[in-house]
């Protein structure tokens, strides 16, 4: 090979090497996996179910949130009483690193209201057809003070059991035959029947224990009012949302709004994220 050809071949090889080098990103030894800025910035959404329900009610909401890049944790609420459940959630939240958005349905609204005051990185509260009590208020008292004659009494059933210490506990469930009308009237019939069968009882004392904290006084909040709610009167939901200064959305839904309108619930959570990031 003459000098001209050797020089030309060397130039071609050098150019190819430059192209390959430019196409390969430089990775520093201390760099972790690449993440988009939107994924890094998004808080964990903590979904907390209420009475007569379980975490599976959040399935569609959780799926939609994950698709949007949100880390999600759907909590199994013990339903053993407001003070017990709030302490449990506080402990769980301390183990969830980074900023958080708390979402409570029904009774769980009271739980997140109590628990969030002890967690400094809670960015927002989202009340989904939920209680938002003030300090010193009990849920039973709120229901009595804001009774709506148009909303029939819940078809509650109770049973008693003996605790390990020998004392007697009382739990509350809803009559499975009346569950759909009272709780999930706009949910597909097959799903509503399973919800009735899978409902988790709540300790009777949960409705008599006064709230110890009111996190909505210091943390931005959003609320969804279910206009066809037969578990919590829509007028009471509006009262609590207005008092909390919550950005409020109303939807023509039963109490089980996260099952019948998961897209609306997801959108409200996203609004809370956009407003507080």
Automatic annotation (TrEMBL):
<dbReference type="Pfam" id="PF12697">
    <property type="entry name" value="Abhydrolase_6"/>
</dbReference>
<dbReference type="InterPro" id="IPR000073">
    <property type="entry name" value="AB_hydrolase_1"/>
</dbReference>
<feature type="signal peptide">
    <location>
        <begin position="1"/>
        <end position="29"/>
    </location>
</feature>
<dbReference type="InterPro" id="IPR029058">
    <property type="entry name" value="AB_hydrolase_fold"/>
</dbReference>
<keyword id="KW-0732">Signal</keyword>
<feature type="domain" description="AB hydrolase-1">
    <location>
        <begin position="45"/>
        <end position="265"/>
    </location>
</feature>
<dbReference type="GO" id="GO:0016787">
    <property type="term" value="F:hydrolase activity"/>
</dbReference>
<keyword id="KW-0378">Hydrolase</keyword>
<protein>
    <submittedName>
        <fullName>Alpha/beta hydrolase</fullName>
    </submittedName>
</protein>
<dbReference type="InterPro" id="IPR052897">
    <property type="entry name" value="Sec-Metab_Biosynth_Hydrolase"/>
</dbReference>
